[in-house]
């Protein structure tokens, strides 16, 4: 019985951590990663030229 309580508690704690750190809004890892990818894509697109021949 004690092992079952420990397992259930671990699962609940893991769920809370994932929801707050990774899937949460605002300062979550998902939001931070999205911002980094957005800035990276903007920097890459800024330096690319399409449809012109190199001189």
Gyration radius over CA? 22 Å
Task: Outline the low-pLDDT stretches.
Answer: none
Q: Quote the average pLDDT.
A: 86
Structural class: mainly alpha
Summed up, the helix count is: 2
User: How far is the N terminus from the C terminus?
Assistant: 75 Å
User: Approximately what portion of the residues adopt beta-strand conformation?
Assistant: under 5%
Summarize the main sheet.
Answer: none
Helix fraction bin: over 70%
Describe this structure in words.
The chain has 2 helices and no strands. It is mainly α and about 55 residues long. About 75% of the residues lie in helices and about 0% in strands. The mean pLDDT is about 85. It has helices at about 1-20, 30-45.
Notable characteristics:
mainly alpha, 2 helices
Topology of this protein?
Blueprint: H1 2-22, H2 29-47
What is the compact description of this entry?
The protein is mainly α and 55 residues long. 73% of the residues lie in helices and 0% in strands. It has helices at residues 2-22, 29-47.
């Amino acid at each position: 019985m004690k092992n079952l309580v420990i397992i259930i508690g671990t699962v609940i704690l893991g769920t809370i951590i994932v929801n707050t750190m990774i899937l949460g809004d605002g300062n979550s890892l998902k939001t931070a990663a999205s911002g980094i990818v957005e800035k990276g894509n903007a920097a890459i697109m800024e330096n690319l030229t399409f449809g012109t021949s190199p001189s």
